[in-house]
Amino acid sequence: MARKRILLSTRSTVIVLLVIIFLHFTSLSAAESEADVLIKFKDSLKNNGALSNWDNRKPPCNGDHENWVGIFCEEGFVWGLQLQNMGLSGPIDLDSLAKLTHLRTMSFMYNNFDGPLPDLALLTGLKTVYLSHNKFSGEIPPETFAGMAGLKKLHLANNKFSGQIPTSLPDLPKLMELMLDNNEFEGEIPQFPPDRIKRFNVSHNKLVGEIPFAFSNFSASVFDGNADLCGAPLKSCTTPNKLSAGTIVPVSILVAATLVALVVVVVILHRRKQAPQGPEGAAAASASVTAPADKKALLELDKMEQGRAAPAATSRAVTPPSAPPEKTHQSKKSEPNVKITFLKEDRDKFDMSDLLRASAEVLGSGVFGSTYKAALGDGQQMVVKRFKHMNNVNREEFHEHMRRLGRLSHPNLLPIVGFYYRKEEKLLVADFVENGSLAVQLHGNRSRGRPCPNWATRLKIIKGVAKGLLYLCNELPSLTAPNGHLKSSNVLLDRSYNAVLTDYGLVPVVNQEHAQEHMICYKSPEYKQSGRITKKTDVWTLGILILEVLTGRFPSNFLQQGRSNDTDMAAWVESVIKDEASNVEVFDVNMERAKNCESEMMKLLKIGLECCQADIDSRPDIKEALEKIQEVKEEAS
Ligand SMILES: *[C@@H]1O[C@H](CO)[C@@H](O)[C@H](O)[C@H]1NC(C)=O
Ligand SMILES: *[C@@H]1O[C@H](CO)[C@@H](O)[C@H](O)[C@H]1NC(C)=O
């Protein structure tokens, strides 16, 4: 009996050991597959529908190429996660992510994560962490960041964090960006070593006390909206502020505004002179209309990214946003007549003095000139666009036309906020739009292996474009082509991917020769045939845009020197859908779609073709086109 019991217990020990060994090996092999780690991570999230292409049929990475949305690969390993604006929530399973040994950058911005900050110290290799615009809350333990010696950028803005700013942050040797604005941090700002932090924002918290010396040369606006901060750049902590706001402030604002206007223009003019030598200038030059489609989109993307400081750009070889341009005073004298005319004066948030500190970054360059971005202190980001070749009308007519455009107001139009007139060139000032241009989203994302807009988003964009066009048509009845320059790089996308048109209504002021060579309405079949554009020319440009959006192909007929055997977009689409035996996929293979939307996609494609008809009489007008487009649904009912 006793013997039997011993035998039994030896046997069970062996079994237990075997089970342990088995479990050990399975967990090891799980640790080895990044796919399994990611899928486990995904399963821990709530509302993970946006990650539907994360599955085991393909590995997440093929070398440097990403097969799954929202990840970045290098040499077969995941080095970045960019899960932004995907409606995600639930816990962030960092225990899983810690097994991704190559992970260096991680963004979960614009989601619905809540609760305390996840334990980032598990991921000691991270260089950049972006968690802004979620619902995280609670205190962050002081030692949270102690082990993260490689951390360069930490963005926690627009959450509900409270308590003290963690004291482990000043000890991080590489930390250069710290964005904590719009939270509920309280107490004093800890001391940081001077010159280490390059970007910083603690506005709209509950901080008190003296601003550490390390931040004394930052813009006062990054301390806005706190309980009781003092010291440079704010008022000194000991001397009470005796200036009478009633007299001194308006005068100084006036002086500052004038100076700012001067400096901005000088900076922009100065940059123009230098542009061709710099790398941006070189890129701009090669991104002219004659560049091959993909190359052009890529170049544009690079420039957009530099401008937007997209998280993905942080660890890749993309150069960081250019240094602030020299705020030179030298040539002020030679610009006697500088005056920016503001068309939207109802904006009380528009504080000119903030432009003084804004660095002008090059966003991109088109056939008219370059586009720059300037960030105002209150968070507004303005875009300044330079136009050469705009001397078709004299100064009075130009002012008059701009006022007319300035009065337009529609959700699908980017308003012109102000302008600057000089004989040789004009500047138009507009708001900055979050998600860049449709062109970059369609063509740039694909070449980078990033997610492209899905069918529902593309349909929404087309509906927005058509509404914007109809509005322009109604409001600018005297213009033959009220838009005149509709193309995917002139369709911007706001935070919710609504279409916002830009560069509209400019045909009358652009030099005729330049317009005929470069503006899209002059690429139409009617212009080619009869040298005239008509009221339906904008409809043709809409048709081409619809085809581009659905096929994901860049319309080569806009390119000045497209390869000679390139077929015209509409003709190509027509030939593909007519040939029933053809197995050429007409729709963009990168466009994610629900199962039963094919017929609706085909409906929109046919509307696009109708709008492209060379015969003007059989082409719908914009109102009819919009009505048809409005009938297209995300899914067949
Ligand atoms: C503050 O000045 C230091 C050098 O004195 C410089 O490195 C740093 O970039 C400046 N910061 C800002 C925001 O201008
Ligand atoms: C700082 O944060 C506030 C609030 O989010 C924002 O409005 C402002 O533009 C930011 N300033 C800078 C310089 O980033």
Automatic annotation (TrEMBL):
UniProt xrefs under Pfam families: LRR_1, LRR_8, LRRNT_2, PK_Tyr_Ser-Thr
Cellular compartment(s): Membrane
Region (Disordered): 308-338
Positions of ATP binding: 385
Entry keywords, A to Z: ATP-binding, Glycoprotein, Kinase, Leucine-rich repeat, Membrane, Nucleotide-binding, Receptor, Repeat, Signal, Transferase, Transmembrane, Transmembrane helix
Any one GO CC term of the record: membrane
The protein's name: Pollen receptor-like kinase
Protein's organism: Sesamum alatum
